[in-house]
């Protein structure tokens, strides 16, 4: 495939085991047009298979993480073509990645931009980040998970405010509401997200994926089913070399050597 034009991908961190994807369409505040989304999907799919990568960070610029789906691209869309063309159905890749994905958000994370951030496993935000679902102001509604993920993260009342007014939510408030895990000065958020990625990449890649899968099940299952799923995966860790190595290394007071087996 040809080199991407609207994203930049590099391997960063001391061991170069964190992939940093920068959304890079500055003139349109990283509006998520078809080309950008397909480049992002392709990059994520190949990084998910790349054994040198233990975690993925997605960021934008200091001005915008992403200002949403490309409004100009969809102005003339009609119901029949969005329905039969499965419009936005290819936007789910971020949530299908097995490795941990961290969003490092500065500036605007609006509409689809915020929805992409919320598909990530962890959100770190810069102090000036702004989150929101402004779709209502252009006569539509969120189409990539906004109405559902805000409710699960912040409860119905706040989710309704966000989706029915289009008002922007500050980084601090997003943190108080549980959307964001930490807030940093603008120039530090990407570095902190990479450090977090490095810390996760130091663990067994295999077990990290199991832990991620178990946490994600909390969104889908009843508590009883979720606890059962967790217990079974926990049992399954005892079928891995890395579990044996982790516990042996602890007893021998040394660092574990993971094989992802
Ligand atoms: N789509 C297309 N172009 C966009 C865009 C978008 N979502 N957001 C910004 N741009 C473009 C602007 O049109 C402008 O381009 P020109 O210079 O060619 O005019 C450029 O980016 C800079 O934007 P502004 O001049 O508007 O910058 P600002 O600082 O005055 O305002 C902003 C910033 C508040 C983010 C404003 O750009 C804005 O409101 N953007 C639209 C946000 C939005 O409604 N997003 C939801 C989209 S729908 C969606 O995402 C559906 C879904 O669920 C998937």
From TrEMBL:
Alphabetized, the UniProt keywords read: Fatty acid metabolism, Lipid metabolism, Lyase
Enzyme Commission number: 4.2.1.17
EC top class, as a word: lyase
Keyword Kinase attributed: no
What is the superkingdom listed in this entry's lineage?
Eukaryota
Show the stretches that span the lipid bilayer.
none
Q: Which GO terms describe its cellular component?
A: mitochondrion
GO molecular function per UniProt: enoyl-CoA hydratase activity
One biological process term in Gene Ontology: fatty acid beta-oxidation
Q: Does the keyword Transmembrane apply?
A: no
Q: Which family does it belong to?
A: Belongs to the enoyl-CoA hydratase/isomerase family.
Q: How is this protein named in the record?
A: Probable enoyl-CoA hydratase, mitochondrial
Q: Which organism does this record belong to? A: Caenorhabditis japonica
């Amino acid at each position: 495939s040809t080199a991407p034009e609207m994203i930049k991908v590099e391997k960063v961190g001391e061991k170069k085991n964190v992939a940093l994807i920068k959304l890079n369409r500055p003139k349109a505040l990283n509006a998520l047009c078809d080309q950008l989304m397909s480049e992002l999907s392709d990059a994520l799919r190949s990084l998910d298979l790349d054994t040198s990568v233990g975690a993925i960070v997605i960021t934008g610029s200091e001005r915008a993480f992403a200002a949403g789906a490309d409004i100009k691209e969809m102005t003339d869309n009609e119901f029949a073509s969005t329905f039969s063309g499965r419009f936005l159905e290819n936007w789910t890749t971020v949530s299908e990645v097995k490795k941990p994905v961290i969003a490092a958000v500065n500036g605007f994370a609006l509409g689809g931009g915020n929805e992409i951030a919320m598909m990530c496993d962890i959100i770190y935000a810069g102090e000036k980040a702004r989150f929101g679902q402004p779709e209502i102001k252009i006569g539509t509604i969120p189409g990539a998970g906004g109405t559902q993920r805000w409710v699960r993260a912040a409860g119905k009342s706040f989710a309704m405010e966000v989706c029915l007014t289009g008002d922007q939510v500050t980084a601090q408030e997003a943190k108080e509401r549980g959307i964001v895990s930490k807030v940093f000065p603008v120039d530090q958020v990407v570095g902190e997200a990479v450090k977090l990625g490095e810390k996760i990449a130091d663990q067994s890649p295999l077990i990290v994926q199991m832990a991620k899968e178990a946490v994600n099940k909390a969104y889908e299952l009843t508590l009883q089913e979720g606890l059962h799923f967790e217990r079974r995966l926990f049992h399954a860790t005892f079928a891995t070399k890395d579990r044996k190595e982790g516990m042996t290394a602890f007893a021998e007071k040394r660092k574990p050597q993971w094989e992802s087996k």
